[in-house]
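User: Predict the structure for this protein chain, please.
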Amino acid sequence: MSYTSNFKYSYTRASLELLVCVLMTGETHYRRVPAASPYNNVLFVRPFFTQSVFPDAQYHRALETLNVMLTHTSRLSDDVVSTGDRMIFVEDPLTCDDSLIDGQAALAAANSALFVTDDTDITVWPGAPKRLSNVTKTASIYATWKVATPSGSKNVLCYRPNGGTWAAVNSSIVIGAPIVNPATCNFTSLRSPSNGADPFTNVPAWQYSHVTIDGANDYSTFFSTFDRTRVVPQSQPCAEDSGSVYDSATLLQTAAMEAIFLSPSAGLYKLCYQVRGYDNVTLYSPMCPSIVVQDPVVVADLSLGCFHVGQTLVLSYRTYPLTATTPYFTASDSYRIVEGSQHCDTLPSSDRTFSSNVAIDRVYQSSPSGSSFTTVATHTANMGSIFLGSGTSAVRFCYRDTAGHEYAVPVLPEITKANLPVARRHTASYTYTPARPQSGQLILVRYESSTLAIAESKPFTPAQQYTVPFPATLVAVDVSVYDAQGLLPYTNPATYLDGDCAAAATAPVMSTTLGNATNTFVYGNADVAVLPQYHLPCYQLAKCNKVDAVSYTHLRAHETPEHLVCRLLLEKKKKNDE
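Assistant: Here is the predicted structure, written as structure tokens:
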């Protein structure tokens, strides 16, 4: 025979060890019932969860994301958390009861109405906790209240462990008024570049749009120059680092704050804010929601070159989409190149950077002021030659219109990517045979690749054409299909500048190449010019521009005896004529 008895233990009481006694029919005294538990035949009422909230109470405000964490107090082996647990908020802790929560649609709807959906982990109430750990015995959720808690009310968390019953956590959360006014998010840069065309309907992708937001409710008490903002898709929570597509510093104004909004692609985004005061740091919280972003309005078109150290790029900026009819570019516009990890615009603007490893028209950048376009048409602006010098690992192209608006410029066809990685120089070293070539002699040059992962490289293979060494002829090659190589002659090596192979007024004669099975080594024939000259080995990846095989290295041709006799006789004749 078995009996079942239910009793409810007040959430306000501490944990306790109880004896269970029963009065049987016909008996006058209670008798102790041995408990089927390992706790010495007593009923152990263990403590329930303790609740902690991050950040501290002064930031328990509407539109501030809070991390509500529950921790098992007793920390016994069977104190666990699981995805089968459920939680919900109520106003009165006495209503944390199975009969008042389970199946109550009105309570579920009331909870849904309390929170900013995209910045709260639970969207269907009661819901499962997130960030579960049975090592720390914790479970938590991100929760962002829409409005302040009405006077006299409170938010009490009810929790039901998997297989258990509902109980109140002995704590409450009171939400104060917001400290920002999201209705005042003002995009000061939301207009077209350059020449006074109509404002954009929405924010263009890759435009650094300056946003000002009015403060409210002791604004100056909470915000500082250390605060940060980030941009995330509207559907993702601000507090999750994985959703961020851009983050920025802020500028503190008298009654408002200024931030920068940037999105890499069209869609629906929001601007999130984090307080980083001297003593307090908050979670990123929604500040300017539901920002519609359109496609970028300026893109780059690469007509020659590849993203490798030593390459010279030929690019132009153009309006996007390519059928755009609104005028954009003017002669007052400018461009610059920054390191890929840096951004084109900053707060404050004095922190803008440039890449000193990149040269424009053979001159390395030396300031963030930018360069003027070589030619400007309504929809196209041509840039000078861009050389990717040693030390370059990634680049970002920037555009500044006449009004001072800044844009990052993606390179077609990848309009959602502006941080462009730069591979190492293709050729790590070279050798040539014979070691002391004579004037007019055909030599064999062996180039060693810096890496096997060169997508653009495509030399001939032995099965396609030649065997090493090459025949004593130079064979022209279609550089749109295969790699090529050649020698650039110098009369004075002191005039050398990195990038000479691509910039030379008289291009070197480029001929075919032959690679081994893995393209670890590539061979080519070259004709050593008439003395006295030095020669710079040039290599051209298929579909790329010419690149100096190795910086500041020259192959010298040596005079044959016949050339030596001729030169001396000519010099003697010239002297006699004088």
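Residues 561-577 form the longest helix (17 residues).
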